[in-house]
Amino acid sequence: MRKRLATLLLAGTGVLVTLAVAIKSVVAGGADTQSFTQIEKGRYLATAADCVACHTVPDFGRPFAGGRAIETPFGNIVAPNITPDRDTGIGAWSDAAFDDAVRRGVREDGQRLYPAMPFTAYTKMSRDDVLAIRAYLKTLQPVHNPVVANNLPFPMNIRAAMWAWDMLYFDPGAYKPDPQKSAQWNRGAFLVQGPGHCGACHTPKSLLGGDKTSEALRGSTLQGWFAPDITDDQRTGLGSWSNNDIVAYLKSGHNRITAATGPMAEEIEHSTSKMTDSDLTAMAVYLKSLTGQTETPTPVAASDPAMVAGHAIYRDQCSACHGLDGHGVAKLFPSLANSSVVRASDPTTMIRIILRGARSVATPAEPTAPGMPSFAWQLDDAQVASVSTYLRNAWTSTAPAVSAEDVSKARSSLRARND
Amino acid sequence: MSARGAVLLHRLPWEPDAGEPPTPVRPGPWLFFTDDEGRAVEAIADRIIPPDPQTPGGKDSGCAEFLDRQLAGPYGRRQGLYVSPPFLKGAKNQGPQSEAGPAQQYRVALAGVDRACQAKYAKTFAELADIDKDVVLKGLESGDIKLEGIDGTSFFQQLIKDIQTGFFADPIYGGNRDMVAWKMIGYPGARYNYLDWIDRHNERFPLPPVSLMGRAEWTPKG
Amino acid sequence: MARKLPKKDVVIVGLGWTGSIMAHELTDEGLDVIAIERGPWRDAPTDFPTNYMQDELRYRIRHELFLRPAQTTFTFRNKMNETALPIRTWGAFMPPNGVGGGGVHWNAETWRFLPSDFVLRTHLTERYGASFLPEDMTIQDWGVTYDDLEPHYDAFEYLCGTSGTAGNLKGQIQQGGNPFEGPRSRPYPNPAQKQGFGHTLFAKAATELGYKPFPQPSGNMSRAYTNPLGLRLGPCTYCGFCEWFGCGNYSKASPQTTILPLLIRKSNFTARDNSEVTRINTDRSGKRATGVTFVDTSGEEWEQPADLVILSAYTMFNVQLLLLSKIGQPYDPVANTGVVGRNFTHQTMSSVDGFFDKSKFNFNPFIASGAIGMCIDEFNGDNFDHGPLGFVGGGYLGQVQTNGRPIETTPVPDGTPKWGAKWKDAVRDNYLSSLKGGSIHASFYSYRDVYLDLDPAYKDRFGRPLMRMTIDFHDNELKAATYLTDKYAEIVKAMGAKQVDKSPRKGPYDVTKYQTTHLNGGAIMGTDPKTSVLNRYLQSWDVPNLFVMGASAFPQNAGYNPTGTVAALAYWAAAAIRSQYLKNPRPLVDA
What we know:
The structure holds three protein chains of three kinds.
Chain A: H1 2-28, H2 36-49, H3 51-54, E1 69-72, E2 75-78, H4 95-104, H5 119-122, H6 127-138, H7 162-169, H8 183-193, H9 199-202, E3 220-222, E4 225-227, H10 243-252, H11 262-270, H12 277-288, H13 305-322, H14 340-343, H15 348-356, E5 358-359, E6 371-372, H16 381-393, H17 404-415
Antiparallel strand pairs in A: 1-2, 3-4, 5-6
Helix pairs in contact in A: 2-6, 4-6, 8-12, 10-12, 13-16, 15-17, 16-17
Chain B: E1 7-8, H1 35-48, H2 63-72, H3 102-121, H4 130-142, H5 152-168, H6 180-185
Helix pairs in contact in B: 1-2, 2-5, 4-5
Chain C: E1 3-4, E2 8-13, H1 17-28, E3 33-36, H2 44-47, H3 56-61, E4 74-77, E5 85-86, H4 102-105, H5 115-118, H6 120-128, H7 146-160, E6 168-169, E7 172-173, H8 197-208, E8 214-215, E9 225-226, E10 232-233, H9 255-258, H10 260-263, E11 269-272, E12 276-282, E13 289-295, E14 301-311, H11 315-324, E15 348-355, E16 374-376, E17 395-399, H12 421-430, E18 434-442, E19 451-459, E20 465-470, H13 475-494, E21 499-503, E22 546-548, H14 563-581
Parallel strand pairs in C: 1-14, 2-3, 2-14, 3-11, 4-20, 14-22
Antiparallel strand pairs in C: 4-5, 6-7, 8-16, 9-10, 12-13, 13-14, 15-18, 15-21, 16-17, 17-18, 19-20
Helix pairs in contact in C: 1-14, 7-14
């Protein structure tokens, strides 16, 4: 009860502050680099929106100076320079132009942005939210870094075509709180749907790359990874995770069940590990409210040749870390017996990790960053398929079998990747 | 400016497919031995580790193939060892000091063995009856039979070591085919997890041996 | 001409155990620290993975993780009047290379020395009289006591998650632990590891003979553990690929598992790998270190200036760098002057093999960890009366078989032919029912004619002289070895062995037979600059802004594995640097 009140009060204070800032903005003309409160709010929202990840070349790039190629199913789009540099960044843009870009997908020169920039999610933010982000970005070191954004092949490089795409897939407008739900739930929904843009990775896409909104957050494949189901599905989603598990994962990259690797590791490092516990809890509350599917596939029998072979491989090669009982070691070796990655409808992530190995994320709360070795040299396609099928159907898990062809395809596509 | 020699960034280094997994030996013609040498080594291996009804001997378990690949590789050419002169004769406890590495030593010694057998029996080592082969090897061991250009006794000690090493090494290196040596002694191979067995005292461990490339049960049947 | 890099507060030479401990401590103090490591970066998922680490040929027989003699090696002779020859391939010891150093491939046997070990000369003289000690024995007191080091032993054990049973808690002897150990302030952070059949049988027989066996203190985790730095380790799975190998499942304490992931995140820490330090630079007075010179993989020379130099490069290379940098007076064994290179020691290792009835005994030797085992300490140090025995020193006796890796584990009874059908049958018949790894791990005291200096003939790839080891066993150690081996054999007999084969250490010192990598001395600590290189804080008497870590500081070796003491000394030195030196850089002890 007290938490609720506190949340309400906080929300109320937030409203007041927003009002105050809004008033000031209306008076002053927008993003105010003199306003500590606005800049702080902007910094936090930019963190939640994870602008730095796409707009910075990893490890070597100057922050927000652009130049990173974002891989999409249609080709690479290079993220622009959003430092306040007047020539090569957005220093010369008006606040209105910035808002149009972030919330309406329209560039300063009138051209449309590709949805690699998740304006379809950022639209959920309010104008004040976006101006706060602008205020923060304006305080950054300007970096001279000219970026050519559009590397897509014909005909995708015709930005005007985005007009049609936007008609199909873009539902503009700020987040509207659901009065039936708590302030905490609404905050979580806002963060997940808006700045967090979780659906950009976790919602399956149509052929044209638009969200399949009826399957929101049920998992999606991109950049050689399957971003898992993050609804409350017991088998493939967060059904067996508590709110604390979700918060621990987002905050530290690790919880008693699993660890973050790949693109999610980067997300946690730059974004959610720096958000408040109450915001992460709100997101957890929201995600857990999304009901999962009810279908359970037929389990593969233990006597199936793949299961027998997989069991032998597991005992000999996997159990030394993941345990004879499949439960791993909390915060060190992920559980495979209770794993949404293992049971996912698309086994891409599991196969990728088995073939290539993985390094989990290090955060201040969890600095160990344990890694898994690569098995590509040791296991052939049938063996990887067997152990994958075994993991998906051993202990109390159930999921469709993985075939040797699935693995063979994964191997070839991974060979073409350098990440 | 920066020195070459990596400066580690503020995260643990990692790349996909990292590491240096072993390359299994591929069956095929000798890479190092001549046909005569190969014949001699197979025959020697079968006396150092004779075949018996339960377990193949040195020849059929692949010890000669092991040695061939080793001599053709870094071991044969003493990669990573200190091979600077001067090469002075030292005491046995000062370790090997010869200018010649294993590859050269085997060349010289195997030729010497065959020459000694020709002199004594008018046959090469491989052509001898087993009983005579043993006489020759015992002669090398004791020093009764001398070889040209190399100390027969030290060579023989190294030979025993190399053959027996090949017998018990992982099958990826050419010897211990089908893990026959491991099956002979009851060694379960390249396993990593005995957590459920540490408390089971005085019980036979039941699982079959595993090589670095796995075991037959890893491949689904049917 | 070396190019100069921007100055750092601290340069650490070598990123093994002591390098990592010092880097962690000094970065916590806010200093800007760089560590320079000769070898490559190494880590579990990339270099010691669970799917190809189990390769006895590659790692144990061909030494892949270790320093390559081609990069550098040492020369060896028994006596001063002999010519030293290069160690062209390793045998008696296996020097480490790479980030993590020996901490990657050690067994994780984590012992403390006895209180009497630190005041050895005083103690033995008091008890037995000065004439009881051989005239050419050069043992010394350390300048620190067990009590000084106790909190630092404790810090290391908790860093590592050492698994053990305390024997002496604040003076109270505890059941099941080592009754001879010095008092500890609190229990081990983890319970002792589980023991195999052979180890358990040894303990039972030892108990029946009136001894007090206890589990060997082990840096292999007996359960999942989170150390005080927040780093997580997993439970050891008794894989039998511990010593000589890196651990694939985060269950062996090493710099990689206990310090480095946190260290590397600090913005005031930099590590440079594949860079070999060739010299410690001093100013014109020779009394102040200005930094180090190192060579990168392209052969280019660089200078890393720093205000404080920590030498953490392993015994042999610490001493070599001091000699080549002309820091401290080199030891002259004939004139008995000088200090750098004196009191060089190793370890006196003996063993006993036991052969049992295969129809009744199955030991599964392959199920083991690096520091598993049951030990007795009745015959270590001065825990027993040496008066009637005519020697000093001793060691622990332990059934500590760590593996059944077959290339090296084919014990056959004495007298079995070395090849042929009889050999094959004996190997088959004895593999599961024999116990190799009866370990008699005894002290190696220091002598006037056992020392280190620079070789006059052989050079490394930079043209610098190799270190020369002049080392042989003295009667004292050989007498001790025979005595302890007999004691051990009694226990094996009492276990029910049908044949007991003793291998007490015999001279001359043989550089081809493995005897642990516990090389010590050469840059010893002490109370008198005429007989030591370092003061009690491991600070160079000659160059106050140089501290030298490692077992090179041991004036003599005790009957235990050295790493616990090496680490405790590092923590002790770090504490002195943090609380005394940094405020006012100066010699901390009056010469």
